[in-house]
Design a protein that fits this description.
The chain has about 250 residues and is an alpha/beta fold. Helices cover about 40% and strands about 15% of the residues. The protein has one domain: Aldolase class I (TIM Barrel, Alpha-Beta Barrel).
């Protein structure tokens, strides 16, 4: 839910309501069999390229309140501030951060000049080397400031950006990533994991996982398939049943 200070923040419900909803969503995902959970301030629209201390504090508090109930790994996506995300993940025990660690973009939020070099130095400075960095290669609300082949961008992110994983998304939350683009990234990624960042659903999950190593899924697991709605436990169970069936087929084929 929207955090304190953002335009849609519910001051009547306050942090108690935010934490209650986050806990319900996280436990529904865990009970549904997901591999990991990504905590994101998705409702803090419009996003800032650098968030204030109130957002970092709120995310840290909320995750800290429920982390002991989680038996699976979790990560943080603090839009659009990867350094803030690393800080929250390290403080709460998160294992990974999703963010923009390479390139420059322009779009709905103005100009986004990523701070991968600063983020890597910050991770080292606070001793958070255990926090893995997953970089978005495509911008869900804008375009690159300089057109570049996506495979070349992926190669640069690995060689120069020292990222731990690559994320290929569609043009917005809930919209499919381009399968051809995903394949081009997979070819150059080698040992680095490639994830699909948006638009994965019960209908296309097999096709996506035939190329990618995994997927970050939100919209199709929410009530009525709407991104900012609460998690739908039954949708999660059906989705993960399809994922596990696909994995079993792949494993049986050697």
């Amino acid at each position: 839910m929207p955090l304190p200070g953002t335009p849609d923040y519910d001051s009547d419900g306050g942090m108690a309501r935010i934490c209650r909803q986050a806990r319900e969503d996280a436990l529904r995902l865990q009970d549904g069999g997901v591999d990991a959970i990504l905590f994101a301030n998705e409702a803090d629209i419009p996003y800032q390229t650098k968030v204030g201390p109130e957002i970092v504090a709120a995310m840290t508090y909320c995750i800290g309140c429920l982390r002991d109930e989680l038996a699976i790994p979790f990560g943080v996506n603090l839009l659009l501030d990867p350094i803030g995300g690393i800080a929250v993940a390290h403080a709460t025990g998160g294992k990974f951060v999703r963010g923009y660690f390479t390139g420059g973009y322009v779009g709905d939020m103005g100009i986004l000049n990523t701070s991968g070099a600063d983020a890597l130095r910050f991770r080292r400075f606070i001793g958070a080397d255990e926090v893995r960095l997953l970089t978005n290669l495509t911008c869900a609300f804008g375009v690159p400031m300089a057109p570049r082949d996506l495979a070349a961008t992926a190669h640069g992110a690995i060689v120069h950006g020292h990222v731990d994983g690559l994320v290929v998304s569609g043009p917005a939350a809930g919209l499919e990533a381009d399968l051809k683009a995903l394949k081009s990234v997979r070819q150059v990624a080698r040992h680095v994991p490639v994830l699909v960042g948006t638009g994965v659903s019960l209908e296309n999950v097999r096709a996506m996982l035939s190329v990618a190593d995994g997927a970050i899924v939100a919209s199709s697991l929410k009530v009525d398939g709407v991104t900012l709605n609460p998690v739908d436990g039954e949708r999660v169970r059906r989705f993960m049943a399809a994922v596990k069936a696909f994995r079993e087929e792949v494993n049986s084929q050697g």
